[in-house]
Design goal:
The protein has two domains: about 5-200, 2-Layer Sandwich (Ribosomal Protein S5, domain 2); about 200-375, 2-Layer Sandwich (Alpha-Beta Plaits). It contains eleven helices and 13 strands. The protein has helices at about 5-15, 95-105, 130-145, 150-165, 175-180, 220-240, 255-260, 265-290, 295-310, 315-325, 355-370; strands at about 20-30, 40, 45-55, 60-65, 75-80, 115-120, 185-190, 195-200, 205-215, 330-340, 345-350, 375-380, 385. Helix 2 (about 95-105) packs across helix 4 (about 150-165), helix 3 (about 130-145) packs across helix 5 and helix 10 (about 315-325) packs antiparallel against helix 11. The relative contact order is 0.17. The structure holds alpha-D-galactopyranose. The site of alpha-D-galactopyranose has 10 residues, from helix 5. Catalyzes the transfer of the gamma-phosphate of ATP to D-galactose to form alpha-D-galactose-1-phosphate (Gal-1-P). Its main location: cytoplasm.
Length: about 400
Amino acid sequence: MNTDFLKNNFEQTFKQESTDLFFSPGRINIIGEHTDYNGGHVFPCAISLGTYAAYGPRTDKKIAICSGNMDNDLVAFEIGDRKLEADPDHKWINYFKGMTAYVQDESREIDHGFNLYVWGNLPYGAGLSSSASIEMLIGHVLTEEYGLEIDPVKLAQLGQKTENEFIGLSSGIMDQFAVNMSKKDHAIFLDCASLKHDYLPLDLGDYEIIIMTTNKKHTLADSAYNDRVRECQEATSKLQEKLRIDHLGDIDEETFNEYSYLINEETLLKRARHAVFENQRTIKATKAMADKDLDRLGRLINASHVSLQFDYEVTGKELDTLAGSAWQQDGCLCARMIGGGFGGSAIAIVKEDQAEAFKEKVGKIYQDTIGYAASFYEAKIVDGTHKL
Ligand code: GLA
């Protein structure tokens, strides 16, 4: 990434030179989908596509942010204003605003404002956590430039709070944790209930990860996402009549089967079954990875997609076409949707020397079936949000 572009745009917009640059990645998730808000495990990592920012201080109390991805739209708000409200006309600024409000709640006064030019090469709204990328970006700008002492896990939690309370999405901790805490060439095996985590080397031999983006526009993802969260809570309450559990992530497959009569409602049963089995698959997948048993890892990843398709019902024709056509290709170990679903992206793990043919063939099937093109990205696994 040539950072001159950022510096130049900063200078043209704000008529001053930038003093620092930041990078905040997006994320993929190897396995463990819709388990985070169920107190289960996830296995994500940060990717080299992400959001960049050029920073320069101001003498007044304004934060002025210009987005290169939004036609250089420029929005300013006041620091010290602890009653920052969401802006309905510039939705993109709300991730910055929410995070700024919550960081200020946690720390001492910030005495002067700043200008920020932001640009990202992460496809937005594509299930690769562009919003967490932005939240952690502004989180680092605030903590590093103003010497605020906020623990990195706490910073991720403030990002989640921004989603939950400022944006209105009942999402879990996975995205912000992955974006902020990742290490190069590793995936994070995270227990979302305790936040205990281990870094496992992402050793895929002669395979590589290909990100496949549906390019589907206009989804109802947010309301459907909140519905799934609610359905899992309902199923948990029913199980709590006999089981002393806090989350679906607290039980294994056998316990679930034994007590499933308590749920006794088809939709809730399917949602809960996904949450329980997906959590167990994630634990098994990290063992398979440690044992270098790639075939088993691949089967678990494929099973994750099937469960998200039929039990959790968050895939849709676009993601099913990507995963289904990936499974048919030579050299493809596995594929599944990632993130919230309903559009967005999938990943495939493919033999390096067959990656080009893979993209061409899956791309053609997708175009023929869906009527427009998918996009493909090859992911490098990188460190979490940092100053450049
Ligand atoms: C979105 C949410 C995450 C997680 C995933 C599904 O990315 O932000 O918290 O729930 O969906 O696993």
